[in-house]
């Protein structure tokens, strides 16, 4: 906890329903912590805890760089055969509710609309994507990725890019649609071959085997699945000039960002370009805004600012983004609650149903 400066970590364990995992609140300096609930078949509790710590810290930096009135948190649950899924998510909702608004959660890898509905029976602090006016969070995220990618393409003078998308689930599918509309040539890969083929037919893409997509001949490699794909043993395989996607924690280590820069590969920091969903959620629930398109479009300007700072200081774009995010986090932690600075989470009636 101390190494990454976390405020609070809760171990989740309920033998009756099989709930196991961690709820991590990284920082509430700027407001209540926001972050999704992820469920995955982790090999160990240590692996799940490490993921919770890394992802919650990334959420703080994402919120800070996006100039939002919130901090970062995350729930990571361990999926296993004895899990009573409905009861587990209801139990998790009680934990979140008892935090009194310090943490607000929503969809993430592995969670479904049914999971969120189960949580909504026991807490008001969960974002259900069926809320009127919220829109599709995956689409908002993909729009942000496109804005960041657009800035990178302009920086390198690439007009009609070939983009290799790794993972075409919710965000990856939307990104493929957006890029197809922009005239890009697309390569797609997914662990679900049927899903990859559907996107290929819709967007005129070519399907590539999942194990080959990272080394594909392309201008942009867009990781849109799980993180940690850019590391010491995969970087030499990259043929792309740009790495820009929606996955969280794309870099296995900070040094991997330095290595990309050394090789002349332009990296769009993940928490900068994939912030569209968080921006929409924060503006909808915390600020009551009906439309976030202008705010998401500003990811383009922030990416340009990161590029300029990296060039000015001869550092990687990853370290430049960290500098800008940390500038808003200099004040001492104050363990603020939901009503920090007068900001109050909206509770749409749809979330109190069931």
Major sheet? 6 strands, mixed
Number of strands: 12
Strand/helix succession: EEEEHEHEHHEHEHEEEHEHHHHH
CATH superfamily of the largest domain, called what? NAD(P)-binding Rossmann-like Domain
What characteristic shape results from the CA principal axes? globular
How many helical elements? 12
**In CATH terms, what is the fold-level topology of the largest domain?**
Rossmann fold
The level of helicity is: 25-40%
Please write the CATH class name of the largest domain. Answer: Alpha Beta
Gyration radius from CA atoms, angstroms: 19 Å
Please mark out the parts with pLDDT under 50 across 5 or more consecutive residues, or reply none.
Answer: 338-343, 348-354
Structurally, how many domains make up the residues?
2
Average pLDDT, rounded to a whole number, is: 92
Q: By helix and strand content, what is the structural category?
A: alpha/beta
CATH architecture of the largest domain: 3-Layer(aba) Sandwich
Q: What fraction of residues sit in β-strands?
A: 5-15%
């Amino acid at each position: 906890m101390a190494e990454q400066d976390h405020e609070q970590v809760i171990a989740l364990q309920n033998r009756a329903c099989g709930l196991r995992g961690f709820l991590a609140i990284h920082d509430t300096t700027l407001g209540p912590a926001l972050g999704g609930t992820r469920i995955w078949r982790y090999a160990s509790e240590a692996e799940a805890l490490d993921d919770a710590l890394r992802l919650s810290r990334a959420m703080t930096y994402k919120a800070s760089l996006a100039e939002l009135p919130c901090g970062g948190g995350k729930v990571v649950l361990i999926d296993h055969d004895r899990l009573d899924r409905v009861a587990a998510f209801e139990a998790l909702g009680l934990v979140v509710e008892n935090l009194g608004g310090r943490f607000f959660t929503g969809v993430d890898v592995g969670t479904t609309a049914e999971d969120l509905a189960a949580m909504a029976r026991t807490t008001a602090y969960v974002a259900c994507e069926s809320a009127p006016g919220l829109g599709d969070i995956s689409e908002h995220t993909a729009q942000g990725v496109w804005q960041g990618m657009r800035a990178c393409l302009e920086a390198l003078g690439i007009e009609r890019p070939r983009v290799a998308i790794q993972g075409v689930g919710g965000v990856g599918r939307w990104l493929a649609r957006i890029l197809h509309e922009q005239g890009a040539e697309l390569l797609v890969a997914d662990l679900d071959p049927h899903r990859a083929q559907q996107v290929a037919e819709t967007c005129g893409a070519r399907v590539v085997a999942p194990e080959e997509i990272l080394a594909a001949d392309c201008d942009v490699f867009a990781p849109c699945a799980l993180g940690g794909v850019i590391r010491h043993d995969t970087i030499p395989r990259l043929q792309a000039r740009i790495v820009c996607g929606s996955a969280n924690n794309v870099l296995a280590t900070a040094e991997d960002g330095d290595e990309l820069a050394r090789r002349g590969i332009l990296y769009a920091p993940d928490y900068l370009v994939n912030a569209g969903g968080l921006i929409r959620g924060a503006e909808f629930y915390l600020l009551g805004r009906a439309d976030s398109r202008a705010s998401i479009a500003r990811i383009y300007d922030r990416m340009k600012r990161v590029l300029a700072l990296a060039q000015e200081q001869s550092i990687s774009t990853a370290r430049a983004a960290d500098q800008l995010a940390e500038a808003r986090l200099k004040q001492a932690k104050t363990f603020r609650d939901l009503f920090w600075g007068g900001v109050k989470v909206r509770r749409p009636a749809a979330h109190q149903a069931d």
